[in-house]
Structures are given as C-alpha cells and as structure tokens.
Amino acid sequence: MTVIEGKIKRGDAADGVLGGRLSRLDGPAKITGKASYALEHQIEGVVHAVMVQSTIAAGTISTMNISAAEASPGVLLVLTPDNITQLKSATTWAGTPGPEGPYLALTNEITFSGQHVAAVIAETLEQATAAAALIEVSYDEKQAIFGLDDERAGEGIAVEKMTIEWGNAEQALAEAPVRIEAEYKTPREYNVPIEPHGLIAKWDGDVLTLWEGSQWVDGMARSYAEWFELPFENVRIISPYIGGGFGSKALSLPHAALAIMAARKLARPVKLALTRAQTFTAFGGRPATRQTLGLGATKEGKLLSIVQRGANETAMTGVAVEPLGAVTSIMYDVPNFSSRQNIVPVHTVLPGALRAPGENPSAWGLESAIDELAYAVGIDPVEIRLLNYAERDPHAKIPWSTRQLREAFAVGGEAFGWSKRSPKPRSMRDGNALIGWGVAAGTYPVRRTPGEALVRVLADGTAEIASSGIDMGQGTYTIIAQTASEVLGVPVDKIHVKLGDSALPRAPVAGGSQLANLMTGAVHKAALAARDELIGLALNDVNSPFREAQANTLTIFEGRILPPRGEGDGVAIADFMRQIGREKIETLRDTLPEDRRDGKDRYDNFTTMMTMKAPTEGGYSLHSWCAHFVEVRVDEDFGTVRVSRMVSALDSGRLYNPKLAESQWRGGIIMGIGQALLEEGIVDERHARVINNNLADYLVPTNSDVPDLQVISVGIPDHHASVLGGKAVGELPIVGVAPAIANAVFHATGKRIRSLPITLEKLI
Ligand code: MCN
Ligand code: MOS
Predict the structure, then answer these.
(1) Do the domains at 47-143+197-273 and 452-607 have one common CATH topology?
(2) Which of 50, 214, 599, 699 would give a disulfide with 132, using CB separation of 3.0 to 4.6 Å?
(3) Which atom of ligand 2 lies nearest, measured to the CA of 509?
(4) CATH class belonging to 47-143+197-273
(5) The Aldehyde oxidase/xanthine dehydrogenase a/b hammerhead domain covers which part of the protein (predicted)?
(6) How much is the pLDDT for 390?
C-alpha cells in the first residue's frame, strides 16, 4: 500500500476496484423503477399478441374455428398452423445445422399440453385476450405419455456420447465387499424467473428491432436473422435489464417468432407477454431424471467402483440431455467407473437449461449415495469424502488447476461445528424436533468462450465500457466497472457500462457461469490498451505537459495522470485530453485466438457455443468446488422439514466482487433449498399436463423457509482458469444442496428419501 499526498491510497482493495465489495451499480435504478425492462418500453402504435395453447398433450388438430375471434372487436390478425409463414430452419445453439425443412412456429401435430396453437393480435391486450377465448379447436386425440414414470415411456434411447467408462466397473461392483445400490429421482423443475418471457418486435423495412430479455443477445439475434433470412446486422436485440433467466432466456422461442411474424404482416410493432402459466409450457425447465447408482467399496469405505445408469425425459420432437454423469465422473478417486445415459421421449415441451443442468441432478445421486455408503461402513460423512478425495481429475487423468475442496470441508466443517455431531441417526433432538446434520459436495466446470469489449476514455474524464454481454442480476455491470476502474485509474462512479444490446461489441452467452471470467478478461485487455494509449500520448503528444517525462514513469490513478512521486500532482485525464485536443480514446479488444479473430470464426464464436473450450482443454481440469453443511429440524409428528442452519464453503477461485459472489452463492443455495423441499412440476397423469403452473402452487422458498446462510470463500486465484484468476460462480452453489439436506433428513429421522422434493408425506 502506497500513500500519496497523505490521502490517496494505491493498491488498496477499495470497493471500486477488482476484489472490492462494491454494491450493484444497477441497484438504485432497479429499486427506484428507473430500470426499464423489455416490455416496459413505450412505443408508438404498438399492438398486442396473446397466445392460445393446446388443451391436449398428444394428437392432431382436426379443426380450428377462428371466425368469431377474427370478428371480435379490435382483432387485427389470427395466426394458426395453416396461415403462418414458413421460416428457415436456424443453426442450433451448438453451432450445428438446424433440423431439415422449414421452421414452423405452429403445427397441427400436438406433442405436449400447452403447445401454442394460435396467436391473436389486436389493438389492445384486453381485445386480444377476449378474442383468444373465442377460438375453438377440436383434436384427434391420442394417448399421451405423461412422463418418465409412464410404463409406456420405456427405457428410452441410449445417448452414446454420454457414456463414460474406465476399468471394469460392473465386475468390480459385483465383487466389492460393500455395495450400495439405489435409485435417485428428481421431478420436473421450472426456471420461473420473476420477469416472465415476452418481447416487443418492430420492423423498419428489413431492419428488425426487438426489446426482449435475453441471456444472449448475439446468439438469439442469429436465430432471428436466420429464421427471417435477414443479414445478422439487421437484427437488434435490446436487453439492458432482465428480471432473471436461470437458463431460460438464452434461446429464441416459437412465441417470439410469431410476434415478429405478426409485426411484419401488420407493419405495426407487436408486444407479446407470456402469462405466468404459459411460462411453464412455452419453454422447458429441468427435465425429470432418474438414476440408479451402484457404489462398491472396501469395508473401510474406499471406493472400488461406481456404476451409474441414468435417464432424463425429453420431448417427442427434440433432444434434451441432462448429463447425469457430470459430477459422478470427477468427484471421487475410483478405479472402476461406468456411467451411461438414456433419454426418454414423453409428451412434454422440450426441456431446457436450469441452473447447473447436469451437475445438479448428478450431485443429487452421487452425494446421496456416498452418504449411504458412509453409514454402511460406519464412518463420518466428511471422512469418507476425504478418504476418496480425487487428487487429480479421475476421468481426464490430468491435474486440477486448483481444487480447494479439502479446505472447503475443513473451513465449512469448523464454522458449522461438525465435530460436535453425534453420528447415529435420530440421536439429536430438541423437544419434538428431530435434528439432523448433513453434508454434501458440489462442483461446476469453468467454461471458456472468448469475449469482446470496447473501452472509451472521454474528454470529460469519464469512461464508457460497452459489450452485448448481459446482466440479469449477477453483477456484470458492477464487475466490469471495477475491472475498468482498476486498469484505467478512473473512479468507478465515472465509468458508464453499457450492456445487453446486440449493436454493441459481441459477447457469448451469460450461461454456463462463464460471463464474469470472460468479460473481465476482455475489458481488462481493452482497458490496458486504452491506458497504454493514454500514457503514450502523455509521453509523446506535442501539447502534453509530460513530454519531458521518462518512459515507464507515468501512472494513472483516481482519474489523474501522475508523474513520479514528488514531481507534482499530475493532471486530471479530462484536462489532459483537452490540452492535447482529443475527444476520446477508444480501444476494442477481444480474447479470441489469433487464428479465429476474423470472419466466420469470429461470428460463430459469439453466436453459437461451438467455440466454448472444454474444462479439460489445456492440460488442467478446471472446476469450482463447494461443500454444504446443513442442519434440519424435522417435526416428528408432522414430518415437516425446516432448514435451520447452513454453512457453505466455496471455491470459485479469485472473486471479482465478494459481495456479489456471496449473493450469487446465497441465491443458488436458496434455489437448492427449494429443490430439496418444495419444487416439483406436478403432472396430471390423465392429461399429461403440469397442473401447478403458477407461483402459488409451484412452490419456491420464501424468506421464512431460509435461515441465515453463511457462505465462506476458500478459493485462491487460478490463472489457468481465467486471466484474472476467477472460476465459475453462478451455478456452483445450487450443486449439492439437495443431497446435503436429504442427508441431514436421514440423520434426523433415519429415513432415506431418494426422490425429490422431500415432502412430509414421504417422511410420515
Ligand atoms: N463473480 C465474482 N467472481 C468470480 C466470478 C463471478 O465475483 N470469479 C460474481 C460476479 O458478480 C458475476 C457473478 O458472480 O457477475 C456471476 O458470474 P458467473 O459465474 O460468470 O456467471 P454468469 O455471469 O455467466 O451468469 C450466468 C449464471 C447462470 S449460468 C445462471 S443459470 C444464473 C446465475 O448466473 N442465473 C441467474 N445467476 C443468476 N443470478 C440472477 N440474479 N438471476 C439469474 O437468472
Ligand atoms: Mo445457466 S442454466 O447456464 O443459464
């Protein structure tokens, strides 16, 4: 720490620089209502679209009578499977060609309950809603397969690329002195972000502007451009604020295609807001999963084999894989391993991504099973995890970059008071409450896709940073400002960050918990370039007051260009820019590899996930890690479970802003509590329909369900993982929470619940 002129401190982790606990810069705008969300955008002449859904899950539309709707007041257009425009099939998010044939946003073939069958567009929302109710649809109905548990669903289709095997797992399991074999299940779970999906679509000739909450404006703009056969540059998505996404706002969806189509046909801007109920069927959440796990071990608890056979439901018309082997294959040191997975087509909307797709249900199975093994061999649940600690990646057989999981167990256990646990189930109680202590680990990979950022230093002493990357509440605005502030020496309140607009420099998806690492990396690079240019001008410009200075002696701090100590106060950047007659210094930088910088490679990098690097690429295996310690209180008579205390220790490498990372961790843990105890899409088996399609019946935790959550960072900077040393934050914390709670419930009650959520009827 250096002190200049007695007050300004250099090298201090002040709130405004990287590593500081700056509060969210978008917070005041959100709290005061100044932040305007997609559907709040006011636009002249806007008309309203309302979706109509199928009431059956399987069959064909035989007739659709739209005449009453068309004659209804204010109605401008009714879109049906018979009159929609056939769009061009678009490249998938993975970068592979889309399905053959045209893209049909509506079809007469019904494959799930709640499938869109028509859209009504009218002058007002009320008129569109009233007219939508007048549409009469009749169907040739077929028997639907309601879900994974439907006998007719069968075993499904093997997904060969999910197979992970080494050693001879089946034989080693058969010969193991101790064996645990059980089935673990998770139900359909939904993203339910508070801001429902929707958009405003406006055409100006062949230029399409969309106000739509998006986790990935560039990727979605590509889909829209391809569907409507427009140049990519003609599509602009504006998404500065997003009311949560949790994985559900990364891809273009059929309802949006219909709104855009209607706007074109009518030559009027169209606004479409899904209802809350429609957010359960307009896109899918986490598919239901089941997995059998066989754990073979020595009598001392050393793992000899893991055999996993998993399945997740998918739609009749598309493939969704929830990788159940994701955690199973890397968590423990095991000489024999086999994981295989099937997908089972059922009559449901295509499942999507929900916070830690794969890792989440994977950890649910494994971290429950290892707990069962701990009791079977009679050792402590933390001990058994340390006994089987993987010193390197057991699957890729390469070293970890960093793995602070041992530290997480030690630090978390200490803070929780784990050593005071009495090992026997049902041995701790407080009156009528059975008390249980449980533990589980979690992990999430470090994903890497290059990013791009623009830095602009302006003559008024402020700086602008721009990128199409988004902030849906994670903190992107804030950490980007901190990064730029640290490099440019411009105070954070003089930095304006612009995000969420596909007209800005490109960025990959805010998904897979990668955006923080890649955007801070890109901003750091662009800001360094701007800083170099500023100092270069200070040394060389004919009008610069520093022309006589030696190279490498100038610094920039707190908005001033400073000479070496003792040689004066320096000059404010604003004054300097004026003196040299410059309005701005602008640097655009990306973190693309040299050979991918131009043309199609560059375009694909930002508009597909084709270029995302595997966490094992580059010789190290890159992952974040965590350990959750939970106390539950179970009412012995009623079977109600309360999480009364939780301590989690997490390794996400270096934190760019600990306050925000802790908030991410708490948010994820709360979602984990919901998953463990409350969340479940309840399927009416007769109609293959999710019936609790609203926030009164689809239960998520409220404040009274959540105790004080202690979160502790045990990470260390990891420069294999990212330029600035951070690892994944966003999805890590949900992983392992549900099994930690189930393990605590077992400790409290002696009952092993292997099917989520842990509701009271399963306990009494
Ligand atoms: N962070 C940090 N230090 C790091 C990494 C991250 O301080 N080394 C903090 C930053 O505040 C950063 C945040 O954690 O903004 C999340 O960073 P990261 O893990 O890179 O995740 P992304 O920015 O890519 O965000 C996506 C991630 C995902 S995939 C889901 S799902 C999810 C999540 O973020 N959905 C969310 N968190 C969410 N939070 C909110 N409020 N709303 C959602 O929909
Ligand atoms: Mo997160 S489910 O990867 O958007």
Answers:
(1) yes
(2) 50
(3) 4
(4) alpha beta
(5) 32-143
(6) 98
- Full 3-state SS string of 520-568: HHHHHHHHHHHHHHHHHHHHHCCCCCCCCCCCCCCEEECCEEECCCCCC
pTM of the model as a whole:
0.96
What mean pLDDT is predicted for residues 425-452?
A: 97
Please tell me the CATH code under which domain 452-607 is placed. Answer: 3.30.365.10
Distance from the CA of 71 to the center of ligand 2, in angstroms? Answer: 43
Closest listed residue to residue 680, CA positions, set 55, 147, 111, 56: 147
The DSSP string of 586-619 is: EEEEE---GGGSSHHHHHHHHHSSTTPBPTTTTS
The residue extents of the domains of the chain are 47-143+197-273, 162-172+285-446+616-762, 452-607
Tell how far CA 454 is from the center of its chain. 24
Q: Is 219 in the pocket of ligand 2 (CB under 6 A)?
A: no
- CA-derived radius of gyration, the chain: 28
328 contacts 366 by C-beta, under 8 angstroms: yes
ipTM field: 0.99
Instruction: Name beta bridge partners: 488.
Output: none
Which residues are near ligand 1 (CB < 6 Å)?
193, 244-247, 355, 472-476, 479, 510-517, 652-657, 660-661, 664, 667, 726-731
Strand 433-445 to 429-430 pairing: antiparallel
Task: Could you please state the CATH topology (level 3) that the domain comprising 162-172+285-446+616-762 is classified under.
Answer: Aldehyde Oxidoreductase; domain 4 (3.30.365)
